[in-house]
Design brief:
This protein has a single domain (about 10-80), classed as Multidrug-efflux Transporter Regulator, Chain: A, Domain 2. Strands 1-3-2 form a 3-stranded antiparallel sheet. The relative contact order is 0.14. The termini are far apart. It is about 50% helix and about 10% strand. It is α+β, with helices and mostly antiparallel strands. The longest helix is centred in the last third of the chain and has 14 residues, at about 55-65.
Length: about 90
């Protein structure tokens, strides 16, 4: 009897690359990059690269399925945006 172990490849990713997120959402990666740069799509910037939280992609799909209507990703991003640190340092 062998014991199975979980590897990082056995679990869902925490982050997607922009092309991966675009493929899941069935849009062009340039569309996602533009939305990220405009602050209308959730992402993490690591130096010059962006990665997209898998939870954000999952949430977009869940909200769209639950609402039964068009989902504005920019509004979702704005609603879940953390307050700016500068506002709290005054």
């Amino acid at each position: 009897m062998t014991e199975e172990t979980s590897t990082p490849h056995d679990t869902a990713p925490t982050f997607y690359t922009v092309p991966e997120a675009a493929r899941i959402l069935r849009v062009d990666p340039a569309t996602v990059y533009r939305a990220i740069r405009a602050g209308q799509f959730p992402a993490v910037r690591v130096r010059t690269r962006y990665i997209v939280p898998a939870r954000a992609v999952d949430r977009i799909a869940a909200v769209a399925a639950a609402s039964g209507s068009c989902v504005d990703v920019a509004r979702l991003a704005a609603a879940s945006r953390l307050p700016d640190r500068a506002e709290h340092q005054q």
